[in-house]
Design brief:
Two copies of one chain form a homodimer. In chain A, helix 2 crosses helix 3 and helix 8 crosses helix 9. The longest helix of chain A is centred in the last third of the chain and has 22 residues. Chain A has three domains: 61 residues, Arc Repressor Mutant, subunit A (Orthogonal Bundle), CATH 1.10.10; 208 residues, Bira Bifunctional Protein, Domain 2 (BirA Bifunctional Protein, domain 2, 2-Layer Sandwich); 43 residues, SH3 type barrels, CATH 2.30.30.100. In chain A, the strands form three sheets. Chain A has a seven-stranded mixed sheet, with helices on both faces. Chain A has a five-stranded antiparallel sheet with strand order 13-12-11-10-14, with no helix packed on it. Chain A is an alpha+beta fold. The mean pLDDT of chain A is 92. The interface between A and B is medium-sized, with 26 and 26 residues.
Chain lengths: 336, 336
């Protein structure tokens, strides 16, 4: 579903959604200024997406259901964004990786706020080239494009924007006190529910684009996770004991991401950092940071103005960490 | 000319180059363990590249000329690299942009030291999305891949490595005292002879790859430059009053780039910076720095350990600049 055809299909869907009664193909075609054949084709495509649309002679069409697949129609029907356009939301069934598609879109010039969403990734990637499991229908696997006008050395600020945005979206949906572990792990019940992979394309003096790949564990049951992950990862369904309406949750997340991004652009990093600090569980804790050339143990003291985590070791020496794996020591001596 | 076929063609060319006398197709086929038909096909391809290869019955083949097109055969025949493989050098006639091809290669996993070289770019790009003129046969337009194991926040260090490497290559070929203007303009006679565009693909905590696009003004005459550039840009031919052997120059540059890169990896940034400082014309001068959100006038004081240029303004305040346009005030008040 692309371009103008996608926009028209969305409009037809929204008319069907608004109308509690039957509406004729003729009226739809008049309202939207397209042929009745076009209307019929779009209705057919909506049916293929899983919508039951009843057609009664002389009365017209009526929509009988909503669909719980990740569909542009579902996500955008009630989406309220300020600058980001609904038209730049793309939904897919199975893809290799939403980041690969989003990077291609970004290289082609697609704007900020372009979202690539899939039911399944066959080659989902996590940080540092690790695999990221993205089974069909269980999670929300998506990537989106940002084009901040900042120097590339400040790119790590964007990971804070993304984590507070996603945190707010999940909080709004679940009502739960979602936590953030530095740099951008999103936790519920001390277990990971979201993975974030931020990729940057840049020159030395400007960012061409940022593509953030997000994996949200939504409707997995405990047995859907491999045994070695069951202590570390969880899903929103497990935490809330309810099936998650992924389209609604994703809508909330898109809206909150945009809000936080606008806050960042208009008010700067300090504002984002203060929101992040309220919800983080890293600062003030004993941590172990493993970077590619060192291991640091000490107290997570603060985030500096560049977004670095400052760790004070037992000799009182301060270390700055920009990224890497940071584990928190639990009271029982184990690590989150 | 790609992969195994390219390697074989190169070997046949090098045999012809070594042999002062005729050499039979049979002997070539025996030495290299390929069929005589294959030998004949490669000879034919070499002729299409512009080589005159005389074939005399019962005597064999002999090479009558060298070719001044940018050809893999010419560049690599005498190339002496340490880690970078000759097999990863790709030459083309006209391309849209060598950076686009090199980025595609990098995303596919091609290694460090992969070079993409063209006679002409139809969509050559400079920094900040500016156009870069790359007319057919006049310059050396190329891009190459690096994969340094450093944090992305240190990427600007690589621009120093690249500028000293290119500077050494041109120095070795011309014997002239080539200068560097911060961050990475290469100058002869106070005019620009090289443009460098460094593009980075990264996560927050690691670099996937760097692609550096290089444009060297080699054989342009003054009238080849648009009038508005004649005061700012020049070519090696204009500066040396000699036609430039572009293949030889590029060979020197590849060798010196590799040397500097190995120095950087093994000895660190400080070593590169001290070489850079010897040849730079920025430090100690009055400069005007225009970044995307400010203009700073003052004394170019030093490069700090992160590669930032430190400018002290007339109030004694220090400003750090990571990139941007920095102009030097000449004695007559004009700017380089």
């Amino acid at each position: 579903m692309k371009g103008a055809a996608g926009v028209m299909r969305q409009k037809i869907f929204e008319i069907l959604l608004e109308e509690s009664d039957y509406i004729s193909g003729e009226e739809i075609s008049e309202r939207l200024g397209v042929s009745r054949t076009a209307v019929w084709k779009h209705i057919k495509a909506l049916k293929e997406d899983g919508y039951q649309i009843e057609a009664v002679p002389r009365k017209g069409y009526t929509l009988k259901n909503r669909v719980d697949k990740l569909l542009k129609t579902e996500i955008t029907a009630e989406l309220q964004t300020i600058k980001w356009s609904k038209d730049n939301i793309y939904t897919y069934g199975s893809v290799d990786s939403t980041n690969i598609i989003a990077k291609k879109f970004a290289a082609e010039g697609k704007p900020e706020g372009t979202f690539v969403i899939a039911e399944e990734q066959t080659k989902g990637k996590g940080r540092m080239g690790r695999d990221w499991s993205s089974p069909y229908g269980k999670g929300i696997w998506f990537s989106f494009i940002l084009r901040p006008e900042i120097l590339p050395v400040r790119a790590s600020e964007i990971t804070f924007v993304i984590s507070v945005g996603i945190r707010e979206g999940i909080k709004r949906y679940t009502g739960k006190d979602v936590k953030i572990k530095w740099p951008n792990d999103i936790l519920l019940d001390q277990k990971k529910i979201v993975g974030i992979l931020t990729e940057i394309s840049a020159e030395i003096e400007r960012i061409n684009y940022i593509v953030a790949g997000i994996g949200i564990n939504a409707n997995q049951d405990l047995e859907d996770f491999p045994e070695e992950l069951q202590q570390k990862a969880t899903s929103l369904k497990i935490c809330t004991s309810k099936e998650i309406d992924r389209n609604k949750l994703l809508r909330f997340i898109i809206e909150e991401l945009e809000k936080m991004y606008i806050t960042y652009v208009e008010k700067g990093f300090a504002e984002i950092l203060s929101i992040w600090e309220k919800h983080n569980i890293t600062l003030g804790k004993r941590v172990k940071a493993v970077t590619f050339d060192s291991e640091i143990n000490g107290l997570a003291e603060k985030i500096d103005e560049q977004g670095y985590l400052v760790i004070k070791d037992d000799q009182g020496k301060e270390h700055k960490v920009v990224a890497g794996d940071v584990s928190l020591r639990r009271e029982d001596g184990s690590y989150i």
